[in-house]
Amino acid sequence: MAGRNETALAEAMEQIKAEGGGRGASIAADLLDRSTLGDVVAEPSPLALPTARPRGIAQLTRAMTEAWSPFGIVSNAIAPSFFPTELTRKVYENPNLLAHNAGMTAIGRNGELSDLDGVTVFLASTAANYLKKTCSAL
């Protein structure tokens, strides 16, 4: 039996299909910068389990596009690195851990929620009409 999320996804896809197509973006979130990028860049990590969810979402994104693209529906994913969320609240309350995570990024800082705005708008716009099955690592 399909779960609540699967049922909601199927209903949304049927509605988009009935409307003639569209685009979708999923969030492949994780707790640590390097583990989130595991779907794009392979590297040894003791964090295999925490990376399974974002990698699964990235694969689901590709599979959804394969299944639904004949109906004009494509999907892409956003893989944010370390952003302020309820799950990361305790790290954001600890200046040492926060600085450590920032030091692990190429640009030397953690993500801000506004960093998601541009890629989200792009993926939802006609500028991304031919973009499909991607996982944008932020």
At the fold tier of CATH, the topology name is Rossmann fold
Q: Helical stretch count?
A: 6
Whole-number mean pLDDT:
75
Helix percent reads: 40-55%
Q: Give the overall form.
A: elongated
CATH architecture: 3-Layer(aba) Sandwich
Alpha-carbon distance between the two ends: 35 Å
Give the H and E element order.
HEHHEHHHE
Q: Tell me the total number of β-strands.
A: 3
* Main sheet record: 3 strands, parallel
Task: Name the strands of the widest sheet in spatial order.
Answer: 1-2-3
The first-level CATH class name: Alpha Beta
Point out poorly predicted stretches: 29-47
- Whole-angstrom Rg: 16 Å
Estimated structural class: alpha/beta
Question: What percentage of amino acids are in beta strands?
Answer: 5-15%
Please name the fourth-level CATH homologous superfamily.
NAD(P)-binding Rossmann-like Domain
Q: How many domain units?
A: 1
Q: How does this structure look, described?
A:
Mean pLDDT is 75; it is low at 29-47. The chain starts with a helix and ends with a strand. The protein is an alpha/beta fold and 138 residues long. The longest helix is centred in the middle third of the chain and has 21 residues, at 48-68. The protein has 6 helices and 3 strands. It has a 3-stranded parallel sheet with strand order 1-2-3, with helices on both faces. The protein has a single domain (22-137), classed as NAD(P)-binding Rossmann-like Domain (Rossmann fold), CATH 3.40.50. The radius of gyration is 16 Å and the shape is elongated.
